[in-house]
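Researcher: Here's the sequence for the chain we discussed earlier.
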Amino acid sequence: MKSLRALAANRWFQWSASLAILVIVLLAFRDQLPFIGQAVAELRDTAPGPLVLAALSALLSILAMAEVMRLLLRAGSVRVPLYETNALTLASNAWSTSLPGGPAFSAVLTFQVQRRWGASILLCGWFFIMSSAISTMWLVLIGAAAVLFLGAQVSVWSLGVSFLLMLAAGAGVYWIMKNPATLERWIRSLLPRLNGLLRRDRQAGVNGAVEQIRQLDSVHFSGGSFAVVSIYSLANRLFDAATLWLAVWAVSGHLPGLTAGENQTTVMGVALAYITAKLAGSAQVTPGGLGTVEAAIIATLVATGMTAVDATAAALVYRVISFALITVIGWIVYVVHYARDGFSGPHQLRRRAQESAQSA
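Model: Thanks. This is the structure I predict for it:
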């Protein structure tokens, strides 16, 4: 019984089981869902121009995300060239979309590489929270626009809760950045008590925590900097959504506009499909939301005017470019740029930091 529970809790088993169920369902209903085969056949007739533009848009989305990383780290006096943040963004995305629990591996890789660049632990945390908060803000606003202009049935609670959580996290980090002295007093007061409860040396970790907090003095993030980072974060979302928009054009031969035609959707219909897909993929039931994201895109595009055949083909084109192509590029970058270091332990990180300091 214990072995069965352990198997059910295993992430690899969950991933494999989810994909197996998806395959079984598709095979069982292949005669009732002929539009899937028709959609695959229709991919041969997709226009090459929009496909090239869609691939370019997907790459620009990654580039914008990399610029967000570069600017947030620069606010903490860690200056890294754009090609380095772009390589890390691609590699971490490949980890995130390829494996069960991929986002955790992606976060570890990002943290360790940023530490090698000289970022403090708190600066790494600052990047994760601020980039997530700003990105979530734009996702909420795009979803709100879809609801307002299209009357879409999007889970307002889901968007609202995500927005409030990210807003609270961002506000908390901003307060810490502006009040390091207060936080230092709290650490010196509370951490010894916690150590006492855990039966450890009361001063264990206090000096290290205080040293990290004092590094916040080097973080300078003005309103202008926030505006620039927000623009690049918005560009990341818009280029990603534009990839779906161009995929619809490549399949249907019609560029979605403000008004719907026969068997055609609109710009807001594409925006709604994009938001729905992001919400469906956030659960990470399968790597990269494989299966759930495609279903969400197809259902939404059909609901906003497209045929099932064209909607399925558009979803496949979008996912081949934004998921498969970008993931393959990310793994190539990882193998070439990061594989020799792999996932370093804390002692290796400290050694590399000491070597960098000595060479400087």
